[in-house]
Design a protein that fits this description.
heterodimer, A: 296 residues, mainly alpha, MetI-like fold, two-stranded antiparallel sheet, 2 strands, B: 293 residues, 14 helices, disordered N terminus, disordered C terminus, Sugar ABC transporter permease (chain A)
Chain lengths: 296, 293
Amino acid sequence: MKLKKVHAYVFVFPSLFLTLVFGIYPLLWALRYMFYDYQGFGTPVFIGLGNFTRILRDHQFWSSVGNTGIYALGKLLVTLPMSLVLAIILNRKLKGRSLLRAIYYLPTIFSASVMAIVFFIIFNSYNGILNQLLLKYHLVSAPINWLGADYAMLTTIIIAIWGAIGNYMLLFLAGLQGIPNDLYEAASLDGANEFQKLKYVTIPMLGPVMQMIIMLAITISLKGYESIMVLTAGGPYGKTEVMYLYLFKLLFPVSGETQGIQQLGYGSAVGFTTALIVGGVTLIYFRISKKLNDVY
Amino acid sequence: MKTQAAASYPLGVSTRGKMLTRVGYAALYTLLIILAVTQLLPLLWLMLFSLKNNQEVFNLPPFALPSQPHWENYMNVWTSGNIGRYFFNSVLVTVISVVLTVLLASFVTFAITRMRWKGSQLVLGLFMVGLMIPVHSTLIPLFSMFLKLHLTDTPLSIILSYVAFNLPTTMMILLGFYYALPREVEEASVMDGCSVNRMFFRIVLPMTTPVMATTSIINMIYNWNEFIFVNTFISSDENKTLTVGVQNFIGQYTTDWGAIGATLMISILPILLVFLIMSDRIVEGIAAGSVKG
């Protein structure tokens, strides 16, 4: 037993060290400065909870939180069921399944920022190919302003779904492969049909893995911002501004933006608040899903 | 022939039932193929686009081939910059980070799920915190830390950051699988006098190959495409990776659309090639596996 304990510490130490030094310590640094008025130069001025009262009044931030909710919900409500269904279909013996798996997974391997440039050219309202095609086949009478105020969020969600389906399909597939074949054989002997096997073997057995995958999906989609940054930069009129994009702009302001000054103190406070929101949502999900698991 | 086969089928599936299944399969395949085309179109369009000149980009239909492919777009982009160097840096940083991350995460996950020790839940909690840490708010403290350690503008700064920030996600994926691993194998190996190290490297790691492949790919893709860390920590051109290097080219060629297409293609080509060569292994290998109880 004693040997085991020493081993556990040896196994854990390198990762713990890296996480503490490169994750937790910078986090504490940021935590300290969220109580300061600090622009990155000069002396930081302690202002107590000043940054947080500012957050409460910061409409731009709260609208970015709302946008993040719409973005994540829109993305996950389509992506997760679709990828689960695809995984279940492509887990069966089906001709060409490995090719289909590869094709669905393909978008995942590309950089979000690079693909956002590609989609920017595709969804462009003036000479974008999507409008060109829609007009050519008379599906629309006038070009749709895909990146305008009405459709920008929809466009970003469509692109996010395009990029995410294959990823979750593959994770679900790996989970499906973890289910022992004996269970299916036993179910067959008991006369279960395909649907019953799905309901009584696949879904319950996939439970723990599914819980982890969905948790991962939630945090990832709440943190997503890179493709939006390239595609719309949060515009038009902040319609696609998500939490992490807003935060990024505070820490690394782009010249020409309304907030052209680097705000490390306020940025740290916003960073903390966004992390609280992501953590809170994840925790609520974890609690609910655990209860659901207990019921089964 | 077919009716005979149906008649000899043990459960007595009628030909009519079989027809329905066939229609069902046709519908299923149609849907699957439509989705596959949707997933492929942007890429196909980018490929065509990268072989056109400005005039063809605007005058030809989007999915029309150019009269003759303008390979010189690639030549121009390749010769006018450091793409070879960026490529080498991307490979170096990606490979080292992925190996370290997956190995270290396996260590931790094994220790948490398979050993009893004080603080295992606390450590798990710390990694969960790591999952929530916003990368941006750590950029500035990390930069000043690397500056003090004389690590800014070195590949090491990037590798350390990648490993640290990918560990929690990697662990989260591994955890579910480790919990599902049968304990009997370990118990048997302990009974046979197997040491912890031996058990881990000889039994547990091979059993988790499929999930390690999954996490390796997720890590590889993340590291290859990562932008923010490289952009912040690396200042000299010779240490930049492909994603950051490519952004320079886009800036340079704002009026040459073919060159923009070629640049985008080059930045995704290496990982696309790896994927095309290994997709069977990657996708099938992840799924088919030894995790079965």
